[in-house]
Amino acid sequence: MEIDGREYTLSANAWRDFQPVAPPDGQPLVVVVKVTTADQASVPADLTIDHVWVLSGKEQWSAAPEPGTTRLETSVRGGPKWGPGIKADVVVRLKQGKKTWMVRAAGVDIKRTD
After folding, report:
1. Of all helices (H) and strands (E), which one includes residue 108?
2. 82 CB contacts (<8 Å, ≥6 apart)?
3. What percentage of the chain has pLDDT greater than the value 70?
4. Are strands 99-113 and 6-17 parallel, antiparallel or unpaired?
5. How many separate helices (H) and strands (E) can be counted in the chain?
6. Are 89 and 108 in contact (CB under 8 A)?
7. pLDDT reported for residue 3
8. Distance (Å, rounded) from C-alpha 7 to C-alpha 80?
9. I want to staple 56 with a disulfide (CB 3.0 to 4.6 A). Which of 24, 80, 88, 94 is the partner?
10. For the domain that residue 61 is a member of, what is the CATH number?
11. For the chain, what is the largest distance between any 2 Cα atoms, rounded to a whole number of angstroms?
């Protein structure tokens, strides 16, 4: 996705925790997202991730970024118990002042930690 002549890319990691301390059916979905561009130094200081959506088939889940995360790298927790072993699309809304843009990472694997 392009903003002011710069191409922005979204990368996402999604997983569910099944370690021994987790419930038998695992913890809810966690997603970590990062928006990058070839020249990170020239990214406007007021450009931030405003919201995150995760889409799987006809189902969707959305959440606001966790407090205390950086403006272009954040995480969301407490999602649905989809997967693991399935793919989902992750979408973030970037915000700069009153302008907004959507960036998508398609086919993100929902992994598991044991």
Report:
1. strand 99-113
2. 16, 29, 56, 59, 88, 110
3. 98
4. parallel
5. 0, 8
6. yes
7. 83
8. 31
9. 88
10. 2.60.40.10
11. 48
52 in the Ramachandran plot: left (φ > 0), alpha (ψ -120 to 50) or beta? beta
Q: Quick check: 113 and 19 in contact, CB under 8 A?
A: yes
**DSSP letters of 40-61?**
GGGS-TT-EEEEEEEEETTEEE
Whole-prediction pTM value? Answer: 0.92
Two tokens at 13? 């990691």
Domain that holds residue 107: 2-113
| Nearest-angstrom CA–CA distance, 26 and 18 | 5
Q: How many domains are contained in the chain?
A: 1
Closest by Cα among 60, 105, 111 to 85: 111
Residue 64 near residue 85 (C-beta atoms within 8 A): no
Query: Please, what's the b/e burial string for 47-85 (b: 16 or more CB within 10 A of its CB; e: otherwise)?
Result: bbbbbbbbbbeeeebebebeeeeebbebebeebeebbbe
Q: What is the mean pLDDT of residues 95-102?
A: 94
State how far the Cα of 13 lies from the Cα of 110, in Å rounded to an integer.
8
**Cα separation of 114 and 58, whole Å?**
28
